[in-house]
Amino acid sequence: MTCGPSPATFRVVDQYSYWQIGATIDRVTIADVIELAPVGGLGEADVLPRIPPRWLAPGCGPCAWWLASRCAPHLLRLVGETWCPIGDCARGAVCPSAIASAGDSLAVLDPGRGDVRVLAGDGRRVTLELATSASGPIALDRRGTLYVVDGTRVRRFDRDSRELPAWQAPSGIDRIAVAHDHTVWLVTAGPSGLALYRRAGDAFVAATVAELDAAFPLTDLIAASDAGFCLQLPAGPAAPVVVCFDRCGCPGGPIAPPAPTPRAKHGSARFALLDSGIQRCSWHRVVVEADVPARTAIEVKLATLATLEDPEAALHPAD
């Protein structure tokens, strides 16, 4: 912002600024961005690009994926655009329902075997094996800690198979994942949609999509359903290649991407006054940086109190 013929005053107001602006909001959410609030819970479009379903796990590096297949062989790894069986230890899988990866290790929850195992070296050796009747999902971090969802508890095991104190968690856990800073995230499913939680201190707290986006990188996954999934794989200087598979890892037809999350049809945010610190300041401009989808619009209304000496003076609608 610059003001009149006086020496210029310039202040940047963004997520990095020390200048915090109070706001009264109606049917919008404010984080690093302002957006219309979801109607009900979140949708797959908010979560899927960052945290895949429990039967699919991104590996270490680009284009690296693991799949708990519905068909034998049950544990597969993506090589190029083809799913290939992994090492000998993995061939004992009976009915895996959830997988997770960290580094070159893969955790597999297998209700058919009644256990959860951690495999290393592309499945060539077992580094941890625990009997369990839990239904999952599961997660694995780079320190070797294994997380197993058992109802409303998150059970934890270190790399030496020692069980750590369990965490109480919300009900309806659909997915669990560990961010690069080792924060554990949960995705729950309920009648109103999906909800996000992250571990903070000694409890799980509600989290936002903006926080999720900051914690996890985008994956290659662009669509997934009970029928199969689609990946958008980089192809060097050429355009990315979209490949689709069924739940057995066989080439399949296109899968519809998740529908956008239903959101409020209109909303508003009224911000507190900005004081330039210059008496009778002549304001310069308002700049709006916005993603405005089709059939939507943004209206900006502003008023100045340059002629008023009282910063607490009320705005008149005519202003």
Overview of this protein structure:
This protein has 319 residues and is mostly beta strands. It has 2 domains: 1-37 and 263-319, no CATH class; 44-219, 7 Propeller (Methylamine Dehydrogenase, Chain H), CATH 2.130.10.10. It contains 2 helices and 23 strands. The protein has helices spanning 44-47, 209-215, and strands at 23-26, 28-30, 34-36, 56-58, 65-68, 75-79, 82-85, 98-102, 105-110, 115-120, 125-131, 138-140, 146-150, 153-157, 163-168, 173-178, 184-190, 193-200, 203-206, 221-224, 228-235, 238-246, 268-271. The strands form 7 sheets. It has a 4-stranded antiparallel β-sheet, with no helix packed on it. A 4-stranded antiparallel β-sheet has the order 8-9-10-11, with no helix packed on it. β14 and β15 (163-168) form a beta hairpin. The longest helix has 7 residues, at 209-215. The two termini are 20 Å apart. The model is unreliable at 1-6 and 14-19 (pLDDT under 50).
